[in-house]
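Run log, item B.
One chain of 488 residues. Sequence copied directly from the ordering sheet:
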Amino acid sequence: MTKPFPRSPQMSGWEAPQRFEGDLYDLEIEGEVPADLNGSFFRVAPDPQYPPRMGDDIFINGDGSVSAFRIEDGHIDFKTRYVQTPRYLREREARESLFGLYRNPYTNDPSVAGLSNTTGNTNVVMHNGLLWALKEDSLPIAMDPLTLETIGQSDFAGQVRSQTFTAHPKFDPGTGDMYCFGYEAGGLASSDIAYYVIDPSGKVKHEAWFTMPYPGMVHDMAITENYVLFPVAPFTSDLERMKAGGLHWQWEPGLDVVYGVIPRDGGAEDVRWFRGPNAFVGHTLNAFEDRGKIYYDVPLTNDNVFGFFPDAKGRSPLPSELKSSVMRVEIDPRRADLRAQGEVLVDAPAEFPAVDDRYLATAYRHVFLMGFGGAMDLASVPAQPYNMMFNAFLHVDAHNGAVRTTWAPGAAATVQEPVFVPRGPGAPEGDGYLLALVNRLDEVRSDLVILDAEHIDAGPIATARLPFRMKNALHGSWAAAEEFNRPS
């Protein structure tokens, strides 16, 4: 490497690039791993392999680095590999960064004109016996779930015509069908959404194309018994701005959040757009129907959380100006004024939810969130964090928003997104395990913790120690061992 990474906050301390692939066989474990855990905890983090082309960069533009914790017979093995996207391979060949600003191909080196910008760094999910690395700017990338070898980008054998694909598909717990979509589906800065239902064997069962009220950001989605929801956050993309070397996204304080609602088997003519107050839209907890109304649970913040995408005047709010709560958004399809109404479910900042996926699209009760708990002392930690400062897990009763229990790993530790694993197929909702990484900032290394989901306040029942730090992932998932076999 001919030049160093910048010493900016997003490229140093805990966030410094790791740039490695490797395996650790049989991790050191404190406690006892439950015998009924058999599968893999997958997660993906942005980790740039070369210094940014533009001098500095935002963390969500790093190359996708996928990790797998394979758990079986009380043992845990670890593996990490890069998603070998066309971008990753071309830069590796050139030994330098060739791609510029986040999702702006007009700032790329001319030698990569027409090559996909995607890094595959946002989420990893299992479907049809394959692990899919997802980023919402491109089609998904298939990987082998056991070796983490990259197989390649896929349009599902020509069935998916969208140019993009969500990082947050939802899976129907009864059928296994994948509900998914792409926004900017027709091309860069377009208002197109392409909505798909794909069965467990990879066959597209339904497709519908429609347009948003404005070319906004649709990071997540939700499903209910009869509907699919697409929350559009008030960022806008603009082709001319990008051609001039500007950012892909611009925050729009004057725009409403809009919620697209379409029947599961609906077409463009069936979409209705409900409006709510301007807000930053977080990650979906769950959604369900009750007496003809739709209820969508999601964190909403009063202003722009992504300060690296400021408004037209260049303004980004200070952290002290942000107020975030978990909201229950009510959408009544019978309302003539198409307004969405919200009420506070959890009056505290909390994000990155994990639910019992067997209860997706129903009136669920148990949700686990990253939040805050206990005092923090980071003054003397050797690797200061820049992102993901949540330091506790909250177990929340979704019926009333009450916090049932909490767990914080210590004054010099932060947490990463959890996943929930049921204790068994017949276990009641919420009976199982919570798996997550803990950042031991004072030791500059990470732990994988396994918590009893009903008693997270008791602390880990097992801790797998890693001898190095794991950068903050964006998202991850659990896959049981039987999912590694492709359907015939």
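Observations after the first pass:
- The chain has a mean pLDDT of 96.
- The longest helix spans residues 86-94.
Flagged for discussion on Thursday.
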